[in-house]
Specification:
55% helix; two-stranded antiparallel sheet; alpha+beta
Length: 409
Amino acid sequence: MNLPLLFARRYLLAKRSTNAVNVITAISMVVIGVVAAAMVVVLSTMNGIAELVESIYSPFDQDITITPAEGKTFERTALARNALYALPDVSRGSWIVEENVLLRCGDQQSVATLKGVEPQYLEMSKMEQFIYTGKATLKGNSGPTAIMGIALKVELDVPLDDGILAPLEISAPVRGRKLSKYQQGAFEHTAVAVSGSYTMNMEFDAKYAVVPLELAVDLLQYDSAVSALELQLVAGSDLDRVAAEIRAMVGTDFLVRTRHQKNVLMYQTNASEKFFTFIVLAFIGLIGAFNIIASLTMMMIEKQRDMRTLLGMGATPGTVRRVFLYEGVLLVAVGTVGGILLGLAICYAQIHFEFVELAGSVVESYPVKVLGSDLLLVFATVMAIGLLAAWVPLRSLSKRFLHATAAKA
């Protein structure tokens, strides 16, 4: 039987002779609980915001993107696409042709990025979910169609499904032709109807026009060349591991990047914000945990008679010291577990009831995502802070009280 732990449990649950000790002990547990709850809520909210940002950018950033190490394009035969598709973690993919072009409709014009894709790309990017007007299709009654960002559509005032009276005119520079020599002949032109417009974020809405791969290849005169191969992986796949496997397959002629590596600044910023927020909360917890010192001090004063009895029965000073160390551990543990449960309750209330709104944003309320790893991190951190706050002063306090108690005994 662990006698120090038994005494600590009894002291934790027992009613004190002095009401101030009860109050200070309760305050200690409440402070620890509030800090733990704040950590859970803040970290979960930042997870939700990071997931929201990723969902906004992910439609145009597939899990894996393969581009040439040098230059803008490469021949399709240079990449063994079927071998890549045969990998167990690869779900599907699409050749990509991407180039800056001039869009025109009537008297309005704008520079945009033309993205030629295969039909399956619309499902890979979940385009249907982001359609604002029209349909998510690259083929209409009159032939190939385009899907463009809502900002581009409004700026050019392009009507839907009109490839004759008011089509979207696309002009692109022909490779190898200099503007100074060929002038108008340096550009290739085509006209298509717009089947739909999407809205994802301000950057993409004003930047991209998506068209069939064949149309982009013909317009840019790429023949069998493409700009990239984008791959969608099976849900739950390890992006870094698969990317490393693909790098070994394709060699040094190609650059293989995950969507995190393509937007490394964005993801690093989110991770840094989460880290520094956690550090600030941990320091607040460290300051609040010093209530435990007061609680243990008051308890040692109150339990001097018990200490004399234990020492008289043959207990060592180390045994008596462990009683109060375990008392501090129990205080921290109860406060931490209670705080984590409170934080979880707040998070799930936000998920189901959305009581904290996010006005003027793409979502109606603050997004929340609870991760098990965050809960373990919060528990370990708060427990470590509490143990530090209990252990550092306990040695000097216990020596003083134990010496005084032994002298009286």
